[in-house]
Amino acid sequence: MPTKHIGKQTVKIQNPLSIISTASIVGPKEGEGPLSLYYDVVIEDEMWGEKSWEKAESKLMRETVSKIINKSGKTIEDINYILAGDLLNQCIATNFAVRESGISLYGLYGACSTMSESIGLGAMIIDGGFADNAVCVTSSHFCSAEKQFRYPLELGSQRPPTAQWTVTGSGGVMLSNQGIGPYITYVTTGKIVDFGIKDSNNMGAAMAPAAADTIVTHFKDTGLSPEDYDLIITGDLGSFGRDLCEEIVNKQGYDIKDKYTDCGVLVYNKEKQDTHSGGSGCGCSAVTLAGFIYQEMKKGKFNNVLFVGTGALLSSTSAQQGESIPGIAHGLTLQNKFG
Questions:
Q1: pLDDT for 252-269, tens place per residue?
Q2: How far is CA 269 from CA 211, 236, 297, in A?
Q3: Domains and their CATH numbers in the chain
């Protein structure tokens, strides 16, 4: 029997395991948003001196990994694993970003849930005694995502109110069995939840049921409640998905209204920046966690955070075949005190 598994989908981390450094690099639009002061670097244009959007995204991740390691006080030789992923086919932003690092890589695809997926797996690897230090990082790019999943930018396609703006950015963390927190204490791994949404411009609705399922499962597995958290934050549901998630969770008997927000809601100024329902993409929750959440926890504003990365497992192939968009969400408890 698994000794660290509690309830249906949750693992309780047994040994102190800290986030010891973070880094985030974002595009110019994100740098104009409400969280601008929390980012390490704001680039001046989406190409960042590269010849393509895809190469620019890879550079975002490569430089983010470098900053994470430099800020941690560790060397490359100290890092046992990189756990990373992005939205592009075959995770090419990740592969080219880390190909010269010489560090063992687990390439992951959880769509926009990849940040929480990578941290959850990294935490279990370290807690299991298989590593001392691991870098968990993701990226996304507005232009490369639109090119792959929707329409060429040159078309100037009209976006409905439910549409979200893919964050141009990369964010990540260093996990270590040494450090003074914030600590990862619970990992609630999500499952596929599919309510039949087919509209790629309404991913919040596709992801919200999965987010709600993971939140409710987390409470049931751990015996914790919304009152135990200072902040409950989902990855990138946007304003439409956030409201739907809150409604579903409330119907399950948990009132999260006073504690709950969404990274996609925080990352942009919806009215001034014309981002419709808000932000999305792997980079959305990654830069928000690496910047805003981490820094506010270090200041003591938040001591207990439930971070739930959300992913719409959208494929251009399955969409053309009339398939729905499956959703998934992975939950992490972050605490300033361990145990």
A1: 999 999 999 999 999 999
A2: 23, 14, 23
A3: 1-339 (3.40.47.40)
